[in-house]
Amino acid sequence: MSSKQPNKAEKRWTTKAGYPAVVMFRENWLFDNYRCGYVGIPLSHPLAKRWCEELDEYVTVHGGVTYSDDYVPGAHKRKTRKWWVGFDCAHAGDTEEEWTLKRVEKECEELAKQLAGKVCGKS
């Protein structure tokens, strides 16, 4: 059993690209525990308010984009003024030991960098 707080923000920070990011630690009673990473972009960003499948055409992230909405469950109690783009580390073969906080943080930084590069449209 993990000593981490389940379904809570494990880390919050501002990425090097200037976007807020959150790593959530998710406890799953059916499968192994896992982490998810999220990056918040302004609602004025050209990729805001798009579905996950659409976002996969513009950014590459572990397992593909699996979340897009105006808040992160467990991290925010209500809608925010950001559009959150996220991914999870609960795919076949993923483990909590492999997808450490540091590694998910690094993946968030890469996602933020890609999103920052898309402010003028698809490149």
Q: What global shape is seen?
A: globular
Count all strands and give the number: 5
Radius of gyration, rounded? 14 Å
**Low-confidence residue ranges:** none
Main-sheet strand order equals 1-2-3-5-4
Q: Give the distance, in angstroms, between the N- and C-terminal Cα atoms.
A: 44 Å
Portion of residues within helices:
10-25%
- Tally of discrete structural domains: 1
Largest pleated sheet:
5 strands, antiparallel
Summed over residues and divided by their number, the pLDDT gives a mean of 88
Derived from helix and strand composition plus strand pairing, the structural class reads alpha+beta
Strand residue percentage:
25-35%
* Secondary-structure element series: EEEHEEH
| Alpha plus pi helix count | 2
Which terms would index this structure?
globular; 123 residues; 27% strand; alpha+beta; 5-stranded antiparallel beta sheet
Characterise the protein shown here.
The structure is a single chain. By secondary structure, the protein is α+β, with helices and mostly antiparallel strands. The chain has one domain (8-116). It contains 2 helices and 5 strands. The protein has helices at 52-55, 101-116, and strands at residues 8-14, 20-26, 34-42, 67-69, 82-88. The chain has a 5-stranded antiparallel beta sheet with strand order 1-2-3-5-4, with helices on one face. Strand 1 and strand 2 (20-26) form a beta hairpin. It is globular and about 35 Å long. The termini are far apart.
Write the layout of secondary structure elements.
Blueprint: E1 8-14, E2 20-26, E3 34-42, H1 52-55, E4 67-69, E5 82-88, H2 101-116
Antiparallel strand pairs: 1-2, 2-3, 3-5, 4-5
